[in-house]
Amino acid sequence: GGVEQARAPLTELLAKLGFTVDRIFSHHGILGDGEANDTQGFIAHSEHDVVLAYRGTENVWDLVTDLTTDHVPFIHEVLLPQLQGPHPKRLVIAGHSLGGAIATGALAYLLQSIDFAASPHNVLFVTIGQPRFGNQHFRQWVDSELGRLRKLGKCYAARIVHDHDGVPLVPPKHMSYEHMADLHLLTEAGDLLVSPGLRLGRAERLSEYIQDHNPTLYLQLLRSAM
Are 75 and 182 in contact (CB under 8 A)? Predict the structure, then answer.
């Protein structure tokens, strides 16, 4: 931990965890106000894991975003070859904020590209403070696929939200956007509550919707919950 380690290059940080970085990339889009947006991500592997991770963006409050498919060639060229061998691998797909929404799209793409039920591999999907992504039909299909793999012991999916994080509340449901994967509620006390019936409460102050989205705070509370 510490500030100096946080400033170290990504490749160096991942190497300390036993990972080799295969590709670092940027995902380009246009926000609703016309402002260019750039969400970074990486693909890395270790002996037992393959990771596809997307970092969030600082500007998440106008989420009418033109999500391109710039990352799809990287998945084909870099990630899929890691899963073609006979040895079991855990595919980890993760993202924070808008990166979580892009990770959801990547998950759906990979569920269509790989027959995980017949393969030796399994999937771990985790997003933190992600906005809604996809309509009802998309949610039902993804949740159905995740449920089928979960019954086989080949998948775990978690959508983690801190107390009153405002980003998971957008885009609004009346615009036909929905969430998938079970809500895992991270409380201010550092407890991680898991239940299909959980619902987010209302914040007392508007500032809480922004403060509770802070990735550093998420990390601190997740450490407390572990």
Answer: no
User: What element of type H or E holds 222?
Assistant: helix 215-225
Could you give the CA distance from residue 94 to residue 41 in angstroms, rounded to a whole number? 10
Burial class (CB in 10 A: 0-12, 13-18, 19+), 124: middle
**Taking the C-alpha atoms of 106, 49, 39 and 127 in order, what is their torsion angle to the nearest 10 degrees?**
70
Local confidence pLDDT in tens for the 226 residues of the chain? 443 454 468 889 899 999 999 998 876 554 444 555 566 889 999 999 999 999 876 554 444 344 444 556 788 889 999 998 889 999 999 999 988 998 999 999 999 999 999 999 999 999 999 999 989 999 999 999 999 999 999 999 999 999 888 889 888 888 998 998 889 999 888 888 887 566 666 666 667 778 888 888 888 888 888 7
User: Contact, 51 vs 43, CB < 8 A?
Assistant: yes
Q: 78: closest CA among 127, 22, 31?
A: 22
For residue 93, give the amino acid letter.
I
Distance of CA 19 to CAs 74, 90, 173, 213, Å?
Answer: 18, 13, 38, 27
Residue 202 dihedral angles phi and psi, to the nearest 5°: -95, 140
User: Closest by alpha carbon to 129, among 101, 107, 157?
Assistant: 101
* Separation of alpha carbons 38 and 56, rounded Å: 9
**Residue 17 CB burial class (10 angstroms; 0-12, 13-18, ≥19):** exposed
